[in-house]
Amino acid sequence: MRTATARRLECKPLPPVLYMALELAEGTWKLGFTVAFGQRPRLREIPARDTTALLREIGDALRRFRLDEQTGVLSCYEAGREGFWLHRVLEQAGITNLVVDAGSMEVVPGRRRRKTDRLDTGKLLECLIRHREGRGLGRKVWSVVRVPTPEAEMRGS
Predict the structure, then answer these.
(1) Is the Cβ–Cβ distance between 30 and 45 less than 8 Å?
(2) Is residue 4 part of a domain?
(3) Number of domains the chain is built from
(4) Which of 104, 112, 119, 156 could form an S-S bond across to 143 if both were Cys, CB 3.0 to 4.6 Å?
(5) Residue 108 burial (C-beta neighbours within 10 Å; 0-12, 13-18, 19+)
(6) Is the dihedral of CA 56, 57, 58, 60 positive or negative?
(7) What pTM value is reported for the model?
(8) Structural domain for 54, as ranges
(9) Are the C-beta atoms of residues 87 and 74 closer than 8 Å to each other?
(10) pLDDT tens-digit series, residues 32-67
(11) With contact defined as beta carbons under 8 Å apart, do 60 and 43 qualify?
């Protein structure tokens, strides 16, 4: 008769990362940055589609959180009006980005949800951290959208 041997699972800590959530509106974009759960996010606002300002704010956030310039950045935004060009810009800059389906984000049933850009940015950051750390608590955090090729996006397929 064999006896089961419990193996000790070793979990390596995840390397530090700067989390960034983008709330994209027609005129301005709200940016939220953090490095961990429970930490008050650094919130910034930039003109919509100003990628120079976006990259500058990322650099400022890395310095603010005392992170090395080589530290990875993990970002997300909800699929919508901007399409996927921003995803491509971020990826080209070495930033790992997720485009998420807004309708797939979990909502607590029966609870009325207040809606502000600050709260939405905070919720995106929370979900981004949970997604990376695998803390879905038995529930799906959200659905990540498959980013089409530029050609497929132009065709609308």
Answers:
(1) yes
(2) no
(3) 1
(4) 104
(5) exposed
(6) positive
(7) 0.82
(8) 17-155
(9) no
(10) 999 998 889 999 999 999 999 999 999 999 999 999
(11) no
Q: Which of the two residues, 118 and 86, has the higher pLDDT score? A: 86
**What residues contact 134, with CB distance under 8 A and at least 6 apart?**
none
Query: Is the Cβ–Cβ distance between 127 and 105 less than 8 Å?
Result: yes
CA 73 to chain centre: 9
Q: Which of 63, 61, 90, 65 is nearest to 76 (CA)?
A: 90
pLDDT in tens, 119-150: 778 889 999 999 898 765 545 678 899 998 88
Q: What is the CATH number of the domain that holds 64?
A: 3.30.420
Q: Within a domain: residue 5?
A: no
Q: Rounded to an integer, what distance in angstroms lies between the CA atom of residue 122 and that of residue 40?
A: 9
